[in-house]
Amino acid sequence: MAVFRKKQRSGGEIPTSSMADIAFLLLVFFLVTTVFDEEKGLRIVLPEQSEEVEVSQKNVYHFLIQPDGTVVVRMGEAQNESVIGAQQVGALWAQGFETNENLIAAVKTHPQAPYRFMIDVLDQLQGAGAVRISLQVLEN
Amino acid sequence: MMQGGFKRKNKAASEIPSSSLADMAFLLLIFFMVSTVFPKEKPKKLDWPEADATKKLDEARKDILHVFIEEDGAIYINDMPVPPAQVNAVIQPIHTENPQLVIVLRADREVAYQHVANVMTELQEARTVRLTFYTSLEQRVQRERR
User: Does CATH number 3.30.420.270 belong to domain B50-145?
Assistant: First the structure.
């Protein structure tokens, strides 16, 4: 009896001609979508520890940040205080700076006030172009 | 020119051999399954304060040191918890090695200001005076700038 052996001829490979395309597509996708965590923020330079500068009270603009986020503003030696929101600080500073170019912003934050309120005020001041800023803790 | 009209059949395989692809994929899968270690503690979520005046920092990465302050006042430097009074001791050697050091203070927006002020005093004691408060750009401004 004649036996015909069937030859096994089915292809045992997965088609891969489009693999490179897929790989490049993925590569381009990730290249485009990747966002690097960039360093950003509000820059300040702290004073040297030994560096204590006497400034005349009339050149100091006090911003007292309260725990509820309101800001008590006092100009220099003047006794009158006004309570404002953090968003008004920038405009107020610009106004004061126009009349006195030696003005220094003294930002005094209540120890229990959330940090973001201080940042709000600092943001306003830096946005208004203030360079001479002093950060302190509000003492009762 | 070819005579006779016999066309040579192009028989060179046009495919990349891929029968071992599945093996490789499984090998990688098993490698990552075996080598993955899940962190036991959950990372704490910090929310940065927002600021319009946020500026990009152009310092080299090697000059930047991150100081994290969590909402409860816990301080982390280089992934290590640092007691508030030790910040000076930790930063001073780093600053001596690299006088160009810039501190990026990444504090949670809700942390009490007292904790931030303490860190700033410690930084002054370590004579690192270049400081940046890490902030994110306000959503509104972000949209406008796009």
Answer: yes
* A44-59 tens-digit pLDDT: 888 887 767 777 888 8
CB contact under 8 A, B52 and A46: no
Counted across chains A and B, CB pairs separated by less than 8 A come out at: 144
CB–CB of A105/A134 below 8 Å?
Answer: yes
In this structure, what DSSP letter does residue B110 have? T
On the question of pLDDT at B130 being above 80, the answer is yes
CA distance B105 to A103: 27
Domain chopping of chain A, boundaries: 57-137
User: Would residue B78 be called left, alpha or beta, if left means φ above 0 and alpha means ψ between -120 and 50 degrees?
Assistant: left
- Rounded to two decimals, the pTM is 0.72
Q: Which residue of A has its CA nearest to B15?
A: A17
Is the CATH code 3.30.420.270 the one for domain A57-137?
yes
